[in-house]
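Design job #97: recover the sequence.
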């Protein structure tokens, strides 16, 4: 039942992304060019709604899909985070979409979204392979 609700929420969220123009390359380009900040406003509203939702979930001792209590913990700064963030931003600017909106574009029937999803999957596999590689011993060890 929880997975069905999560799927329904995802479909509704994708529909909302489509309706506000978040799946439009022109809207994203205009946001990055600072010529039309409506989409930036939508993102700010989404952040505020998410923050309120997390606050309510934490107060009501909600559980994750796996049945674990929700816990919001501060994440430590990791090596490669800045580089990964820059790569994410470059990919977003080039493709005109991020992972969430790419799925919404697939729902709209846009074939270009399949290329974006392919890039997301390939880069995910590449980072997984990179992180699983054996560590080399250094001269200091």
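Job complete. Output follows.
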């Amino acid at each position: 039942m929880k997975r069905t609700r999560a799927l329904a929420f995802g479909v509704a969220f994708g529909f909302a992304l489509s309706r506000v123009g978040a799946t439009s390359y022109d809207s994203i380009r205009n946001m990055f060019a600072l010529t039309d900040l409506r989409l930036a406003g939508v993102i700010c509203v989404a952040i505020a709604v998410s923050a309120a939702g997390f606050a309510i979930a934490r107060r009501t001792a909600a559980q994750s899909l796996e049945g674990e209590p929700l816990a919001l913990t501060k994440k430590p700064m990791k090596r490669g985070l800045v580089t990964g963030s820059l790569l994410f931003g470059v990919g977003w600017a080039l493709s005109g979409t991020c992972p969430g909106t790419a799925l919404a574009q697939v729902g709209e029937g846009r074939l270009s979204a399949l290329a974006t999803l392919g890039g997301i999957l390939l880069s995910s596999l590449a980072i997984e392979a990179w992180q699983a590689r054996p560590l080399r011993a250094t001269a200091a060890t």
